[in-house]
Amino acid sequence: MTTPRVLIPVALGTNRDGDLADAFRLAGAAPEQVPLTALRSGDRRLADYQILAIPGGFSYGDSLGAGRLFGLDLAGWFGDQLREAALSGMPIFGVCNGFQALVRAGLLPGRQAKAVLGQNQSGRFECRWVTLTPSSSRSIWLDQLSEPIRCPVAHGEGRFVSDDVAALDAADQVAFRYIGSDGLAAAQQYPANPNGSQDDVAGVCDQSGLVLGLMPHPENHVLGRQDPLRGRNPGGGCLALFQAGVNAVSA
Known about the structure:
The protein is 25% helix and 25% strand.
């Protein structure tokens, strides 16, 4: 079994790259945090890695909107590499700002529907723990998840809105939904659904199942001690999500 290399691109303002690297390291991978300048110069190439993981934070200060400039960088500077990576079967993961960047770069949700991640319905930055239920059998990242997970959100723009959530459901592309602490559907109620996302959608995958994006931060609950409730609410840790991605390329 080989140890897969994980590329974690870092832009100005990115601040969760270390947490994401720790999660992949615990899952058995070899992550590397690489500035975008090194990718632009050719010192590093996406083809040299087996997994791409785009971290959260406030890339470029979220100028022009959350993840917008990061997404333009991905599409403009590395569009060809991203297309080659997708065709080669590389797993791609984006969390929070990384999810926003993947949506803006056009990698998510794909051909089935259009989507945006808008301002939170509350009108303010939300930083709280939430519970998610896995809801897709398509994504390779969810292969080892059968129970709800808990992790924090930290964003001001995370409200998922699509022109056709029904099409995404039919294509099995809704990867995660927010649920209440009682294990029941959030029914778009705050704070179980912290941002007002349509149909409680917290994350989606593409049609291949290789590309996954979600707003909450699973990298911040890969150890039991990270959960302030420590099992007193439904939902477990998130390490299995990262292990699934690693296992998909290490066999």
